[in-house]
Structures are given as C-alpha cells and as structure tokens.
Structures
1.
Amino acid sequence: MYTGDVAEQRGATLHRHPWSEEPPRPDAPEIEGWVRGQIAPLIDTVGGRPLLIANSLGTNAAAVAAERSPPAV
C-alpha cells in the first residue's frame, strides 16, 4: 500500500486491483496461473509501460513482469 501511495504522490495514476473471486490457497500449484489471469488483462487495459507493484499474493505476478518487462516492485 505504501509503495502505491508514494507513486501516487509523485504523480502516478493508480489502478488498484481487487481480486475478482476467492483465490486458490497460496500454496496451491495453480496460484501463479490464477494471479496471471487476474493481472494480465488489467495491464493490457492500462496500456503504456505501467509500474507493477505487488505484495503477498500479488507477488505471483512476477512471471507476468518477467515476460513483459514492465518495471516492478
């Protein structure tokens, strides 16, 4: 949350993403794919070169960041 707050204070537009449904257990094998399915469409709609900020469950979006090369925290 604080990282997003700092980005916003520096002029960034935030697109906070609430999970659209209950996620699988964090240790479930399908968790990375589930997070990818949640995050990839959001990145596509934002356009440009967004900064991907994630914590906790969202860190499973690292594969999306690795593939698309946006800056990420």
Note: Residues 31-46 form the longest helix (16 residues).
2.
Amino acid sequence: MITGDTTGSIIGAVNDHIKKVLIGKDVDEFEDLMTAIQSSILKNTSAKAAVDMACWDLYGQLYKIPVYKLMGGARKSIVTDITISVNEPDEMVRDAEDAVRRGYDCLKVKVGKEPQKDIARLSAIRAVVGNDVAIRIDANQGWEPKEAVRILNGMQEKGLFIEFVEQPVKAHDFEGLKYVTERSYVPVLADESVFSPEDAMKIMQMRAADLVNIKLMKCGGLYNALKIASAAEVYGVECMIGCMLEAKVSVNAAVHLACAKKIITKIDLDGPVLCREDPVMGGAVFNEREITVSDDPGLGIKGIEGIRYL
C-alpha cells in the first residue's frame, strides 16, 4: 500500500533487471555498484534496497569493518519507540501500559480515521502513562490540511503533549504539508512524502516539515538514505529512521545507519520486537527498547534458520 511492491515484483526486479547490471563486477567498484542498482529500473525501491543492503554487507566484509563504522560510526546503541495500533481505547491503554512495563518510554500511537475517538484514545493513554512517557502520533495521510491543524492544535490545548505527528496529509500534498507545519502546535514529520533524496530536498527547501523520516524500503537502500541524511545535515533538519512491518535483516541495516549518523535523532525500529519468532542469527541485538549494533564485519548477519533458497 505504500511502496507498490509485491513479492513477485521484487523477485522479478532483482532477477530480470538489477542482477544483470551487477554480475561480473568487483565488490570494490562500490560507487558503480550503487549507481547501477538505482538506475537499473524505475521505482521498485524494496528490490533495490534488498540488493543495496547485500552489497554494503559484502563491502564491509571485504574490508573487515562493520557498516555503521564505514558510514560514520557515531554510536553503538540506540533507543526505539514502540507502536500502539488503532483499537478500542481500553485495548490501546492496555497495550500502552504493557509497553511501559517493558521499559519503553516513547509510544507511537496510530491515529487518523476517527478524530474525536483519536482524542479519547490519546487522552486515556496519557492519563495512564503520565507525562514522563513521550507520545508521538502517526496519522498515515488521514487528514486534510485544515482539518489536521484543527485536530492537532486541539490535542495540544487538551494537554496531550504530542511530541510530533507523522504524515498528517496525503503523500503528494507538499503544499498541504507545509500548511500544517506552519500552523500546527505539533511538529510535523514527513514520511510517505519522502521516497527519494530529491523528495527530501524539496521538503527541506520548502520548509514543508519539521522532521524527515528515512525508510530504506521507500528510498531504495542505504546509499540513498545516506544522501537524505547528508541533505538533512546541511539544512539542519533532524531525521527519524523508520521501518515497515519488517523482520530483522532489513531493520538491522537501518540500525547501522542510525548508529552511523547523529542527524538521526528519532528511532522507530520496533519491527523485530513485534515478530513472534526471530530465526535470524547475528546482527544487531534487539532488547526491547534498546538496540545495540554488531561489530562483526558488514551487517553482521550470520544466517537464517530454516531458510530455503529458490
């Protein structure tokens, strides 16, 4: 629903397009590999991200250095929020209480379809967790610009203390995003609006958002993610690193990026802790809210239990 990718399209893009521009090249020709991946086919960002991550892993292994150190090496560990999905208020309160008991001090609450009920949900959660727990909300493109300003300002006036709102308006509506950013008491983070370094640059130049979300599946991998981070450093715009409902392999790559760059100040990498099982050996250690990057070469993944290669 976000990237337009399917399992079949990803396999097809890799086998029929991306693979053809890489086979036979040396891993050491890294810049050429990265540009070849991005120019091999239009869009198909998840397929590009998969191959991009594999190349970074190989490059790190070649020089016996972890990827996060190749990219900057700012820190060894990060702290993530956890998502509270949209349900009835009492169920969301239970989920929030459970998250706080597990040590989380930052909740990302999904909103956007029922404004009045959303306020009731958030009020109930805030009453239970207190003001020491940060609450950020994700509207998932759910509002029109004027509606978003009214809702967000109303939330703050009710003392809900929202840290920021993620993508309040439609992805393509940069002017609407700017309208909300200029008038909302709640800081605005652009998510679905950012599919490329060019998108990020436009938003920063327009001052259409206060923060920018980097997701590897949307931008096509670490190579383009680094470009977004570099632009953010120039414009002084803090970034969040996020993920889809992904398991450990791809989220692990996002951890390396987050540990490499200080401009990434917000972490939303709870995908692996939402999974019932973790068959991935090696890589970052996900200990609830605390994530520690691996110092093994490359991305540090050793294998996946039970994987079948096609």
Note: The CA atoms of residues 32 and 147 lie 46 Å apart.
